[in-house]
Amino acid sequence: MDGVLVDSNAGHKEAWASFSRQFGMEPTEAMLESMFGRRNDEIVRYFCGEGLTAAQVAELGAAKERLFRAAMEGRVEELLKPGLRAFLERHREAPMAVASNAERDNVRLILEEANLTPYFRAVVDGYQVRRPKPFPDIYLRAAELLKTPPVDCIVFEDSVSGVQAARAAGMRVAGVGSTHAELPGAALSVANFLDPELETWLEAQSRAV
Questions:
Q1: Contacts of 76 (CB under 8 A, 6+ apart)
Q2: Domains, the chain, ranges and CATH?
Q3: 149 or 39: which carries more pLDDT confidence?
Q4: Given a cut of 80, is residue 94 above it in pLDDT?
Q5: What pLDDT is recorded for position 150?
Q6: In this predicted model, what pLDDT tens digit does every residue of 23-43 receive, in sequence order?
Q7: What span, in angstroms and rounded, lies between the C-alpha atoms of 70 and 63?
Q8: Mind giving me the DSSP string for 169-194?
Q9: Nearest 5 degrees, angle CA 114-CA 3-CA 169?
């Protein structure tokens, strides 16, 4: 979702920076870049220390995500990746899912505010599986809900850990260049959904199945 459906990475970085400053920390750019593709509980422990209890991690993570949602509210439509809605319309008969490490409320905000929910037959957030990306659990769960063999699934990813998760699930990956200039393991790299190479590649994948 983040970085694939919507250009929300800047919003996350701003929210983490604001959150950190409340506790007297000034995050570096490297720290902020390291959060992409990771689940919230992992990021909280990375920013705030490993000695936190599960309840403290949940409380701190929820506080940060409230900052993020406040920053994103009313802006989701303008931040959708170029060409996304037309792409979803073209492929709306295909079984599609959202599988994101994000918090459930964040997923709901993005999908509902942009009215994207009708396109997706399944939604899996980062807390519906035991292990987050880079483990394959979230993508395997999405495939299960779509009743589609993993080998027949194509994943759109913008993070290194996400590509690793998809490949570990036995799926093909189209990289979206929102977060990293290079995504090792992606079979295709596009800037957004307007790239003409994307449809050509998808047609080739369909013929190969």
A1: 6, 109, 110, 113, 114
A2: 9-72 (1.10.150), 81-208 (3.40.50.1000)
A3: 149
A4: yes
A5: 97
A6: 777 777 776 666 666 777 887
A7: 11
A8: TT-EEEEETTS-S--TT-SEEESSTT
A9: 110
